[in-house]
Amino acid sequence: MTKVLIADKISDVAAQAFAERGIEADVRPGLAPEALAEAIDGYEGLAVRSATRVTADLLERATRLRVVGRAGTGVDNVDVHAATARGIVVMNTPHGNSVTAAEHTIAMMCAMARRIPQADRSTRAGAWERGRFMGIELRDKTLGVVGCGTIGAIVATLAQGLKMRVITYDPYLAPDRAASLGVTLVTLDELLAESDMITVHVPLTEETRGLIDGDALAKTKPGVRFVNCARGGLIVEADLKSAIESGHVAGAALDVFEEEPARDNPLFAHDEVIATPHLGASTLEAQESVALQIAQQMGEFLLTGMVVNAVNAPSIAPEEMAKLGPYLTLAEQIGSFAGQIAEGRIRGVTITFEGQASALDSRPLSAAALQGLLAPRLDNINMVNAPLVARERGIEVREIRSATAADYQTVMRVDVQSGDRVQGVAGTLIGGGGLRIVEIEGIKIEAELGPHMIYFTNEDRPGLIGSVATILGEAGINIATFSLGRRAPGGDAVGLIGIDSPVPDEVAARLRARAAVITLQRLSF
Ligand code: NAD
Ligand code: MLT
């Protein structure tokens, strides 16, 4: 039975959703790293929130693991590179908690503007300090949104409801999208200089770590306030502390910290700072939504191979799967064919999509073709790690699309460059999803593939076919299919024979010894 480990505290709906799919889910939140490392090898799936650190060392121990599911957005607690290298899919739930996180941002902004946490503390302590907690209005203030993706965009929309002017810095945001959100796209320096309140909504990456540092803070307006409900590390805490102490920054509302759990953070000493313990996604609605979604996604992947919301593999939406499924098989099989016949080190591969195939999402298809190509040569290759492995081995991958295909409505071809040769295989799908090889090394043919095949190149001479069939018959090997192609009568020719059982070495040697045979290889699919 397929088994998954739920290693963080996530809603019970996840375990139920796994059970409904016949997947056994062990719920063991809070395991110490060593205990987790001990346990992990028993599982094909690992579901986490943000507490569990999915490190390269942990993944090394996880020999059966196929998928890591993050019930939430940020995957910075997962070593995605190490997972990719091991062929493990990492998926998240990018939209399940976005509204909740955006609402928390607005709540933090309002709380900071009106000093609600400080006033709450004072009032409940019996001090009735009406004069002490003077606030500011948000209306007509400028809100600078750094990163206007899923959450940033919702924050921008909600803030406009509060009649704030919203400007954004996001180098990847299309101007049309900014316009449709009613926000002004500016540079980071402009945002820093113009904003009364700045909220960050970018992922934590090498590029964004320390984005708001001392230099950036120096460019802001005196009295600026900051909100961080994205990730600790985006704002340099030591620099923020200095800016608060100098009185330049009037307040900071922080849900996330450089080090979590944040128990002893120096910023907590400042009354201008309000803090929540990474609660951005903590509503019943969001937690049920991400737990259910991650269990559904992981379950579908483990049971059917369908990939949704993967951060390290091309996603295939359920509605696309029906169309892409047969093409994935085609891509993988012609890749495998090309990989088995290619001689020497592979230096480059060109994957061509012709006719109907040219309209498809090429990323999963190329990944499947590379998987097929590399699998005969390397262990543990799958669609997730094949593009990375190809890159690491210096294999140059090119894609070509052509809206037309010469003889068929749809064709995919894989041309492999190894040594000083290019060897190519092309295939098509016929009615009902059947797969046909339609070209090998530039010679047209029409052949089915089976588990055991013999591929040979030969001189087009009388008598060869009969003698090949005789040798196989004498060895008790039943022929299932027999397909031939030639460049011209009497010229170069190829043959592909489907057989019901593998060909022993000694039979292969007898076949190779036929005078007209140039090369002969045993292939398996
Ligand atoms: P998203 O990927 O939808 O949006 C991120 C945006 O940042 C994108 O538009 C991208 O173009 C932009 N961006 C990337 N690099 C940038 C850069 N250098 N400068 C400016 N913009 C840049 O992500 P999202 O779902 O909106 O999540 C945003 C953040 O919120 C993430 O860090 C996520 O981990 C965090 N998050 C936190 C909580 C919480 O509990 N506090 C909950 C959910 C998400
Ligand atoms: C996220 O990235 O989704 C947040 O960190 C929310 C969480 O899971 O706590």
Explain this structure.
The chain is α/β, with parallel strands linked by helices and 525 residues long. The protein folds into three domains: 3-95 and 285-304, 3-Layer(aba) Sandwich (Rossmann fold); 98-275, NAD(P)-binding Rossmann-like Domain (Rossmann fold); 318-524, D-3-phosphoglycerate dehydrogenase, domain 3 (60s Ribosomal Protein L30, Chain: A), CATH 3.30.1330. It is built from 17 helices and 22 strands. It has a seven-stranded parallel β-sheet with strand order 8-7-6-9-10-11-12, sandwiched between helices. A six-stranded mixed β-sheet has the order 14-13-15-16-17-18, covered by helices on one side. A five-stranded parallel β-sheet has the order 2-1-3-4-5. It is elongated. The structure holds nicotinamide-adenine-dinucleotide and D-malate (MLT). Residues 49-50, 72-74, 97, 278, 280-281 line the site of D-malate.
CATH architecture of the largest domain: 2-Layer Sandwich
Biggest β-sheet description: 7 strands, parallel
The averaged pLDDT comes out at 95
Distinct small molecules: nicotinamide-adenine-dinucleotide, D-malate
**CATH class identity of the largest domain:** Alpha Beta
Distance N terminus to C terminus?
26 Å
Q: Can you tell me the residue ranges where pLDDT is under 50 for at least 5 consecutive residues?
A: none
Number of H- or I-type helical stretches: 17
Indicate how many domains the architecture comprises: 3
- Sum up the overall morphology in one term: elongated
Helix content estimate: 25-40%
Strand order of the largest sheet: 8-7-6-9-10-11-12
Nearest-angstrom radius of gyration?
30 Å
**The CATH topology of the largest domain:** 60s Ribosomal Protein L30, Chain: A
What is the CATH H-level superfamily of the largest domain? D-3-phosphoglycerate dehydrogenase, domain 3
- Secondary-structure-based class equals alpha/beta
